[in-house]
């Protein structure tokens, strides 16, 4: 891999980590469109473009997810009983979606991703938050939520924060605990998603060298190394910068990147 691609992945990791620390979101929303463009420029087969971007993005989230869980746990913000209850369904939903994604065409995945990011952007621009209206459900209700959160997260390569924080807030969980618990839930999503995209992409032809299934490991390593260090910088600046304004700017960026991604997959 030439030096310009190395620098591109390092720069992507820096931006992803910083935005994740600053706003608590940003992983897949930024990575998937940019990875799609980078893979297209590197000559990856159009058939696998979005699959490779999704799998590589999921694997890149693992390290930053671990760092985030450790930070939130140090502040006692993680509700571990909730994590243990929802994790089995999260694993099933996430892995099942990677199997489904392997069967779906690139253009469909790109459209689904873009629509979901449009929904996330609208939430951020309008500051839409669910009104607390009930308590956490029992095992059945929690499992259904876990299946949906894991399933959708794997199809758009996110750690589930935009979904799990909303679910926990709706269930009257204090926002600090909702964010911390969501970070812990993101860990099994990232792990199951990574493994799923590796297994379900096994044997795919014309993928880049040093890939395992739909995960391109050189990109994973470069993105993870930098994002691990830039995430704490973003977290510190979150208390000094106008986060509400930055969220609106970030939402506009999500829309732009999603549209750019659609252009890439429909013209490559």
Describe this structure in words.
The protein is an all-alpha fold. The chain has one domain (3-267). It is built from ten helices and two strands. The protein has helices spanning 3-23, 27-41, 49-74, 80-103, 106-126, 139-156, 161-170, 175-200, 217-237, 243-267, and strands at residues 211-212, 215-216. The chain has a two-stranded antiparallel sheet with strand order 1-2. The protein starts with a helix and ends with a helix. The mean pLDDT is 85. Belongs to the 4-toluene sulfonate uptake permease (TSUP) (TC 2.A.102) family. It is a multi-pass membrane protein. The chain crosses the membrane at residues 6-35, 47-67, 79-101, 108-126, 146-171, 178-199, 211-229, 249-266. Its main location: membrane. InterPro entries: TM_pro_TauE-like.
Helix content: over 70%
Task: Give the structural class.
Answer: mainly alpha
Task: Give the C-alpha Rg.
Answer: 17 Å
Number of helices: 10
Binned strand content: under 5%
Any key phrases for this structure?
268 residues, mainly alpha, 10 helices, 2 strands, globular, transmembrane helix, Probable membrane transporter protein, cell membrane
């Amino acid at each position: 891999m030439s030096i310009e691609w190395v620098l591109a992945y390092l720069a992507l990791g820096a931006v992803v980590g910083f935005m994740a620390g600053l706003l608590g979101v940003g992983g897949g929303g930024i990575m998937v469109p940019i990875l799609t463009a980078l893979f297209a420029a590197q000559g990856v087969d159009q058939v696998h473009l979005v699959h490779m971007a999704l799998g590589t993005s999921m694997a890149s989230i693992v390290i930053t997810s671990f760092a985030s869980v450790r930070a939130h746990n140090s502040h006692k913000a993680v509700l571990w009983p909730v994590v243990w209850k929802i994790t089995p369904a999260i694993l099933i939903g996430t892995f099942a979606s990677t199997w489904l994604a392997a069967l779906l065409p690139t253009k469909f995945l790109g459209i689904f991703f873009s629509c979901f990011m449009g929904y996330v952007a609208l939430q951020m621009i309008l500051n839409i938050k669910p009104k607390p209206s009930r308590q956490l459900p029992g095992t059945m209700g929690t499992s259904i939520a876990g299946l949906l959160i894991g399933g959708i997260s794997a199809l758009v390569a996110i750690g589930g924060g935009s979904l799990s924080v909303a679910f926990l807030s709706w269930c009257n969980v204090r926002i600090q605990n909702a964010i911390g618990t969501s970070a812990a839930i993101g860990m099994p999503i990232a792990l199951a998603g990574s493994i799923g995209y590796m297994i379900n992409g096994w044997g795919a032809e014309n993928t880049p060298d040093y890939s395992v299934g739909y995960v391109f490991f050189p990109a994973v390593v470069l993105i993870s190394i930098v994002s691990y260090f830039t995430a704490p910088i973003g977290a510190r600046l979150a208390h000094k910068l106008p986060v509400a304004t930055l969220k609106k700017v970030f939402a506009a960026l999500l829309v732009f990147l999603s549209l750019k991604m659609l252009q890439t997959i429909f013209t490559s």
